[in-house]
Design goal:
There is one protein chain. The protein has two domains: about 35 residues; about 60 residues, no CATH class. Helices cover about 35% and strands about 20% of the residues. The protein has three helices and five strands; from the N terminus they run ααββαβββ. Helix 1 packs antiparallel against helix 2. The model has no long low-confidence stretch (mean pLDDT about 80).
Length: about 120
Amino acid sequence: MNRFCRAWLTLSADKPTDALIAFLDAAEAGIAAARQILTGKGAKTWSWDPNKIQWREDEGFKGKYERSEDINNLEFKAMLKAIQEHKGSLWRDGYYYWAFEKSPIVGRKKKTQKA
Protein backbone atom coordinates (compact mmCIF):
# COMPACT_ATOMS: atom_id res chain seq x y z
CA MET A 1 0.00 0.00 0.00
CA ASN A 2 1.51 3.35 -0.97
CA ARG A 3 1.87 6.35 1.30
CA PHE A 4 -1.16 8.08 -0.20
CA CYS A 5 -3.46 5.16 0.61
CA ARG A 6 -2.11 5.01 4.17
CA ALA A 7 -2.66 8.74 4.55
CA TRP A 8 -6.19 8.34 3.27
CA LEU A 9 -6.96 5.55 5.76
CA THR A 10 -5.49 7.35 8.78
CA LEU A 11 -7.50 10.54 8.35
CA SER A 12 -10.39 11.11 10.70
CA ALA A 13 -13.88 11.35 9.24
CA ASP A 14 -14.38 14.83 10.74
CA LYS A 15 -11.69 16.34 8.50
CA PRO A 16 -13.18 16.26 5.00
CA THR A 17 -10.76 18.92 3.73
CA ASP A 18 -7.77 16.81 4.75
CA ALA A 19 -9.36 13.81 3.07
CA LEU A 20 -9.91 15.76 -0.14
CA ILE A 21 -6.31 17.01 -0.15
CA ALA A 22 -4.99 13.48 0.35
CA PHE A 23 -7.19 12.24 -2.48
CA LEU A 24 -6.03 15.02 -4.82
CA ASP A 25 -2.38 14.30 -3.97
CA ALA A 26 -2.89 10.65 -4.83
CA ALA A 27 -4.69 11.54 -8.07
CA GLU A 28 -1.90 13.94 -9.04
CA ALA A 29 0.75 11.27 -8.44
CA GLY A 30 -1.22 8.81 -10.56
CA ILE A 31 -1.62 11.30 -13.38
CA ALA A 32 2.09 12.12 -13.33
CA ALA A 33 2.99 8.42 -13.46
CA ALA A 34 0.56 7.80 -16.34
CA ARG A 35 1.96 10.79 -18.26
CA GLN A 36 5.52 9.45 -17.89
CA ILE A 37 4.48 6.02 -19.13
CA LEU A 38 2.48 7.38 -22.08
CA THR A 39 5.19 9.80 -23.20
CA GLY A 40 7.88 7.12 -23.05
CA LYS A 41 9.74 8.08 -19.92
CA GLY A 42 13.34 7.10 -20.35
CA ALA A 43 13.11 7.21 -24.13
CA LYS A 44 16.38 8.47 -25.52
CA THR A 45 16.31 11.70 -27.48
CA TRP A 46 19.33 12.24 -29.66
CA SER A 47 21.01 15.57 -30.35
CA TRP A 48 22.33 14.43 -33.75
CA ASP A 49 20.83 13.29 -37.04
CA PRO A 50 22.80 10.59 -38.87
CA ASN A 51 21.13 11.55 -42.16
CA LYS A 52 22.95 14.91 -42.06
CA ILE A 53 26.34 13.20 -41.91
CA GLN A 54 28.30 12.12 -44.99
CA TRP A 55 28.80 8.36 -45.04
CA ARG A 56 30.81 6.25 -47.48
CA GLU A 57 30.78 2.51 -47.90
CA ASP A 58 33.82 0.50 -46.87
CA GLU A 59 34.68 -3.09 -46.12
CA GLY A 60 36.50 -4.47 -43.11
CA PHE A 61 37.39 -7.94 -41.89
CA LYS A 62 33.81 -8.36 -40.57
CA GLY A 63 32.16 -7.27 -43.81
CA LYS A 64 30.67 -4.13 -45.34
CA TYR A 65 29.94 -1.07 -43.26
CA GLU A 66 29.67 2.71 -43.60
CA ARG A 67 32.19 5.18 -42.22
CA SER A 68 32.38 8.92 -41.75
CA GLU A 69 35.19 11.38 -41.17
CA ASP A 70 32.93 14.44 -41.49
CA ILE A 71 34.77 16.30 -38.69
CA ASN A 72 33.63 19.79 -39.76
CA ASN A 73 29.97 18.81 -39.36
CA LEU A 74 28.26 19.71 -36.04
CA GLU A 75 26.07 16.59 -36.30
CA PHE A 76 29.21 14.44 -36.60
CA LYS A 77 30.75 16.11 -33.55
CA ALA A 78 27.58 15.52 -31.49
CA MET A 79 27.46 11.89 -32.66
CA LEU A 80 31.13 11.31 -31.79
CA LYS A 81 30.58 12.81 -28.33
CA ALA A 82 27.55 10.55 -27.74
CA ILE A 83 29.54 7.49 -28.82
CA GLN A 84 32.39 8.43 -26.50
CA GLU A 85 29.92 8.90 -23.62
CA HIS A 86 28.71 5.33 -24.30
CA LYS A 87 32.25 3.91 -24.00
CA GLY A 88 33.00 3.78 -27.71
CA SER A 89 29.86 2.33 -29.26
CA LEU A 90 26.06 2.53 -29.23
CA TRP A 91 22.91 1.27 -30.94
CA ARG A 92 20.44 3.67 -32.55
CA ASP A 93 17.50 3.05 -34.90
CA GLY A 94 18.75 -0.36 -36.02
CA TYR A 95 22.36 0.75 -36.56
CA TYR A 96 25.43 -0.08 -34.52
CA TYR A 97 27.80 2.92 -34.27
CA TRP A 98 31.39 2.78 -33.06
CA ALA A 99 34.35 5.14 -32.88
CA PHE A 100 37.70 4.08 -34.23
CA GLU A 101 40.49 4.22 -31.67
CA LYS A 102 42.86 7.19 -31.85
CA SER A 103 41.14 8.80 -34.86
CA PRO A 104 38.02 10.89 -35.48
CA ILE A 105 36.35 8.22 -37.60
CA VAL A 106 32.97 6.65 -36.91
CA GLY A 107 31.68 3.42 -38.40
CA ARG A 108 28.13 2.15 -38.56
CA LYS A 109 26.51 -1.07 -39.61
CA LYS A 110 22.85 -1.94 -40.08
CA LYS A 111 21.64 -4.70 -37.79
CA THR A 112 21.10 -7.87 -39.83
CA GLN A 113 18.31 -10.37 -39.29
CA LYS A 114 19.53 -13.87 -38.52
CA ALA A 115 17.53 -16.71 -40.04
